[in-house]
Amino acid sequence: MEAADKKSKKKKANLFCSQMGLPLVYAEKEGDYMSYQNMCSVHMKANDLKQVLTEQDSLEDWVEDKISSLADDIDELHEYFMHGHGKGEEDSAKDKKPWKEDRKPEGKLTPSQKAKAKARAKKHNRPYPNQVDNMWAAQQ
């Protein structure tokens, strides 16, 4: 990446963070700030997408699935950090992955899940069985 391009991105990110009332992402500091930087980036890009998309937009299934998955992940992280688990926990808590907990068990689909997956595949002109529709049905 060219130095001018990198400088422009830093300037844009710092401007965004200052407008949002957040500390500057690219401040001259040492240490681990990658997670914070990534959160600022997610926030900035989510705002960009929010301005482009409307509730009336018809999105492809894979796009809706990505957005739903991202929303679930953000909800789980929010729950984890807002209830005091993100700071001052014992070392054993660092090994826990809360986003992996409370998931539905993996295994075979129930007959109703299979029916939903098959109907979804038919609606989108896909052959069944397929992993896309099965994974979707397993999460319902």
Query: What is the rounded distance between the termini?
Result: 42 Å
Helix/sheet category? mainly alpha
Average pLDDT level:
75
Element order: H for helix, E for strand: HHHHHH
Total of domains: 3
Report the β-strand fraction as a percent range. Answer: under 5%
Poorly predicted tracts of residues: 27-31
The major beta sheet can be summarized as: none
C-alpha geometry: extended
Number of helices: 6
> Number of DSSP strands?
0
User: Helical residue percent?
Assistant: 55-70%
Gyration radius, rounded: 20 Å
Summary of the model, kept short:
This protein has helices at 3-19, 34-52, 61-82, 91-95, 111-123, 131-139.
Distinctive features:
3 domains, 61% helix, 6 helices, mainly alpha
Give an overview in words:
Helix 5 crosses helix 6. The protein is extended, with a radius of gyration of 20 Å. The chain folds into 3 domains: 56 residues, no CATH class; 44 residues; 37 residues, no CATH class. It has 140 residues and is mainly alpha-helical.
List the helices and strands and how they pair.
Elements: H1 3-19, H2 34-52, H3 61-82, H4 91-95, H5 111-123, H6 131-139
